[in-house]
Amino acid sequence: MAENTNRTIKKVVIVGGGTAGWLAANHLGKQLINEHSGVEVCLIESPNIPTIGVGEGTVPLMRQTLQELGISETEFIRECDVTFKQGIKFVDWVDNPVANKPSYYHHVFDYPNITELDLTPYWLDGLAGDKSYADALSIQGAVCDAGLAPKLITTPEYQGLTAYAYHLDAGKFAAILTKNATKKLGVKHIFADVLKVNVAESGDITSVTTDSAGEIAADIFVDCTGFKALLIGEALGSKFISKQNTLFADHALAIQVPYDEPAAPIPSYTISTAQQAGWIWDIGLNERRGIGHVYSSAHTSHEQAEQDLRQYIGPAAEGIDARLIPMNIGYRELFWKNNCVAIGLSQGFVEPLEATGLLVFDATSKMLATQFPAKHDDIATVAKQFNRNVQATWDNVISFVKMHYCLSKRDDSAFWLDNRDKNSIPDTLLEQLELWRNYVPTQYDFSNRFDIFNRENFLYVMYGMHYPTQIDAIKSRFQEDEVAKQHFKMMAQRTQGALANLPLHRELLLKIARYGLQKR
Ligand SMILES: Cc1cc2nc3c(=O)[nH]c(=O)nc-3n(C[C@H](O)[C@H](O)[C@H](O)COP(=O)(O)OP(=O)(O)OC[C@H]3O[C@@H](n4cnc5c(N)ncnc54)[C@H](O)[C@@H]3O)c2cc1C
In 4-82, at which residue ranges do the beta strands (DSSP E only) sit? Predict the structure, then answer.
């Protein structure tokens, strides 16, 4: 079917029904299926091979995606055990931990540029007193600390008083995406195992042979088979480029535990607590907590990692098994090869410190759907662009995640010391950090449009980690002290207002379950 004629592309087959497969199915279905296009989108899912079943943290882009896909926020919150996420609280990342005195900073979702004036140099100059960077430039850290929600019950769907994303149950999320793609968007769903991938001499995939649905041909195949990468890796041989020398964590131990008491407060942020050889995520869903230890097996044993996880949780984990998940850290040499595009863990993966999995797969599914070639002859050109853009996206993610580690002053284990070894740090990040010793980061340092972490994200982490930018030599450029002081004062007042008005997180979730949110 996929030999060299310039045919119109009529059929897309997605292999894999995890979150990545269903995100891709939704984006492609929305963009391509309509009565005039004649394009068919079909997803093949194995009834036997389980999905990875983790991936509970998201970032604000997910809000936009769900809205664009026509999913009601109320329905999503009720069906997927959803809670709100306003950012990540990083505990014990900056310095060696002190017993019973955890130190922390917030990487919140509200962007700090509330004004034309960049307040960062004024904060560096001490004009906000002893307020942390996040507290001086945003209300959201204080909102998180007070256990509050990002919106009121009267705030319409998908709107917030602060920027927010979600924590969700991965299995239930795949189910709602399945319903939307098949019932609303017209995506065909086949339950079968793919046994063989049939490749023509040209290198294009012609069809896949399944155990129960025969041979299925298509013009374009989307590989969403997870770490297995059945099509892009095994069949087409796109090499996996490991980034393990930069990001050392290669295993996770995941566990689900009940709340100590049914009405326990639910944090509206992910808690990430640094450990001797990695870190522990702690995500509060409506009905349970999802907790996991992400660690480097070169720096600790699996037994020790499990012991650290259980010590973190306490009695709530007694009698509950933790699941060991090996992780391939890195990405494919080509994400789009011939007529096959990889989306999901088959494309690449970086440990989940900043919840980048769903973010990258959502963003790249959208990229694929928007740029989808109409004719066979266009595939090579679109693929070239896609590969360039997706690689830039991954490189940005890797630099950003590495920065969390290499700015730490911890020296209580080889893991933290190794993370500061210059050979493990990407050259671009080293250059930027060198520059930012004497300059405040500007938007020109982030000129790639496909960077999914921007200047604002870098600023929260850099200054949360106490990065020592010295502005003495450029201080004369910042002459707006009085205006800056006014803004800091205004932010303190806005914070007090938000603390007085926003509901407790669990209280809002209960109200949404009962009454729902207003449509826009
Ligand atoms: C420890 C850990 C924590 C994570 N935390 C986060 C997080 O907080 N936030 C976030 O955004 N992301 C996170 N991720 C990433 C997230 O889990 C993935 O992005 C997401 O689940 C997508 O996975 P997937 O769909 O690519 O693969 P999978 O879930 O593995 O799905 C693969 C699919 O392919 C199918 N399949 C495989 N072989 C065949 C075959 N031969 N025939 C037919 N079908 C087949 C399977 O049945 C399955 O449906 C985390 C990942 C890990 C490992």
Answer: 11-15, 40-45
Q: Which atom of ligand 1 is nearest to the CA of 54?
A: 17
- CA–CA gap between residue 371 and residue 383 (Å, rounded): 10
Atom of ligand 1 nearest to the CA of 56: 8
Q: Is 141 exposed, middle or buried (0-12, 13-18, 19+ CB in 10 A)?
A: buried
In this structure, the residue with its CA closest to atom 19 of ligand 1 is: 357
Does ligand 1 have an atom closer than 6 angstroms to the CB of 168? no
Helical axes 427-435 vs 379-406, angle rounded to 10°: 50
- Amino acid of residue 397: V
Residue 111: exposure state from Cβ atoms within 10 A (0-12, 13-18, ≥19): middle
Distance 55 CA to ligand 1 centre (A): 8
How many residues make up the chain in this entry?
520
Q: What is the largest CA-CA distance in the chain?
A: 73
**C-alpha–C-alpha distance, residues 125 and 136, integer Å:** 12
**Total Cβ atoms within 10 A of residue 68:** 12
Angle at 451 between CA 448 and CA 454, to 5 degrees: 100
* Most ligand 1 atoms within 8 A of CB, residue of 43, 45, 54 to mutate: 54
Summarize pLDDT for 359-377 with one digit per residue, the tens: 999 999 999 999 999 999 9
Render 321-377 in DSSP notation, one character per residue: PPEEEE---EEES-SEETTEEE-STTTEE--GGG-HHHHHHHHHHHHHHHT--SBGG
Indicate if the pLDDT at residue 281 is higher than 70. yes
Distance 47 CA to ligand 1 centre (A): 15
- The three state secondary structure string of 409-463 is CCCCCHHHHHHCCHHHCCHHHHHHHHHCCCCCCCHHHCCCCCCCCCHHHHHHHHH
**Assigned fold of 11-80+167-245+329-394:** FAD/NAD(P)-binding domain (3.50.50)
The residue whose C-alpha atom lies closest to atom 1 belonging to ligand 1 is 252
Q: What is the pLDDT of residues 215-251, one digit of tens each?
A: 999 999 999 999 999 999 999 999 999 999 999 999 9
Q: At 495, is the secondary structure helix, strand, or coil?
A: helix
DSSP per position, 255-291: EEE--SSTT----SSEEEEEETTEEEEEEE-SS-EEE
Tokens of 146: 């007070």
Q: Are 134 and 108 in contact, with CB atoms under 8 Å apart? A: yes
Q: Which of 248, 221, 266, 274 is nearest to 95 (CA)?
A: 274
Q: Which of 30, 85, 151, 243 is catalytic?
A: 85
* Token pair for 453: 């972490």
pLDDT tens track for 418-446 = 999 999 999 999 999 999 999 999 989 98
For 69-91, b/e burial (b = at least 16 CB within 10 A) is bebbbbbbbbbbbbbbbbbbbbb
| 85 belongs to the catalytic site | yes
Domain ranges of the chain: 11-80+167-245+329-394
